[in-house]
Amino acid sequence: MIKKLQLPLQTLNCMVGFMVWVLISSLLPFIVEDITIAPERIAIVTAVPIVLGSVLRIPFGYYANIIGARLVFLISFILLLFPVFFISSASTFADLIIGGTFLGIGGAVFSVGVTSLPKYFPKERHGFVNGIYGIGNLGTAVSTFSAPVIATQIGWENTVRLYLVLLLFFAALNFFLGDKQEVKVKTPLVEQLKSVYKNEKLWFFSLFYFITFGVFVAFTIFLPNFLVTYFDISKVDAGMRTAGFIVVATFCRPLGGWLGDKFPPLNLLMVAFAGLTVSGAMLAFSPSIGLYTVASMVIAVCAGTGNGLIFKLVPMYFNKQAGVVNGFVSMMGGLGGFFPPLLLSAVHSITGSYSIGFMAFSQFALASLVLVVWLYYMDRLSISGEVFNYTGQGILVTNVDGTIETVNPAFTKLTGYTEEDVVGRNPNILSSGRQSKEFYTTMWGQIGREGLWQGKLWNKRKNGEEYLELISISAVKDDSGDVVRYVGTFTDVTPD
């Protein structure tokens, strides 16, 4: 029973963590009425929780494997009591910076669930499960929508204090309902990092999540104040619009994970980045609030779907190091939410417009699209290489002149010749002398006419032993129809 509760419990944990994580940005329009904050410092106040929340995701993901999700969530919620109480009594800019920094613990808990929950489900459901867990991002929408409404009734300080009750309640839930028997993984952190840091896919996935989750976080903390100042709408209206963005992005996350379970995730990720590229460019032209809303919703759909797809890809490629890789990738996503608000504010202070900042985002999305396409084709080549290296049939590839270009390990096992022995030489080094010239003339004549010959012939191993092989020789042509190489595949069929 306890194991069945982990998905809903950890999803709610994530939601609470995210509610606390964006506490300051949600209430900022109210806070600035009591605490004087220079316009150029507003972006810093909203961005500082992102830093610690991002950096801590690596150790949180690691310790979720070491001590279990139950204890990590429990300790996190207890620690969050201190900065939340501190902020409720804040009276200066420095107070907000100090308290806001430690609110980052709320964002760091994300890497706990994506590390823990896959242990309870088969691989073919990991994308959907992590997508469901990602609904916890809805916590940002809950705070963005509800906190301003409550603040209008009881003030922002008392609104902050209500979060203390919520944290205590969820600390108790994890104490009683968390899984004490969760499978632990105790590979040292340094050892795990050494095993993955040279893998280019780690850096690709980090960049992709930097864009998709980064834009989600950035819009979450940037929109409330931006909509009020740029379009002169009410604080509650701005909160509702931001909440709508968060809801769409959040519910598209499990959709992305589910689609990644059903279809090739890299193909779908291409579509997501194409959508981000186009919508970012649209925002750069400073549209009306109607077009701004449309472009923002496209970003929400593409970012949410992309988030789900990326955490389908991580366990596909990093099964044994999922904890540390999830932590690293999610850290980069959190940092992705730190820079855009600062960039947009800096651009606006210099130019008086947000257009350059939005266009820069569009170009980052375009660069990511190109990298996804490249990774897709590299993956295809990798698959081809694995088939070439691990198939049980011997494979020999020559150029059009008959010079050997490469052979696979099965060729070495069957013939005794290594790749170094044969590359640059003619396949006649294998000849046993049993076949006549007319045999080879007929064979190559058929290859020239039909592009394929299959049959049996006697060849000789490196040690001089003769063997009978069943061989297929194919002509490989380029797009213009010209033969560029020949490929021979064979197996040993020598009679006992």
How many distinct folded domains?
2
CATH second-level architecture of the largest domain: Up-down Bundle
Helix coverage percent of residues?
A: over 70%
CATH topology description of the largest domain: Growth Hormone, Chain: A
Estimate what percentage of residues fall within beta strands: 5-15%
Indicate the overall shape: elongated
The biggest beta sheet, please?
5 strands, antiparallel
> Which CATH class of the largest domain applies here?
Mainly Alpha
Radius of gyration in whole Å, from Cα? 29 Å
The counted number of beta strands is 5
Describe the strand arrangement of the main beta sheet, using strand numbers: 2-1-5-4-3
Separate helix tally? 22
CATH homolog superfamily of the largest domain: MFS general substrate transporter like domains
Show unreliable segments.
Answer: none
Series of H and E elements = HHHHHHHHHHHHHHHHHHHEEHHHEEE
Q: State mean pLDDT (0 to 100 scale).
A: 87
Kindly, what is the distance between the CA atoms of the first and last residues, rounded to a whole number of angstroms?
Answer: 59 Å
Please, could you describe this protein's structure?
It is a single chain. With 496 residues, the chain is of the alpha+beta class. The chain has two domains: 2-388, Up-down Bundle (Growth Hormone, Chain: A), CATH 1.20.1250.20; 392-492, PAS domain (Beta-Lactamase, 2-Layer Sandwich). It is 71% helix and 8% strand. It is built from 22 helices and five strands. The protein starts with a helix and ends with a strand.
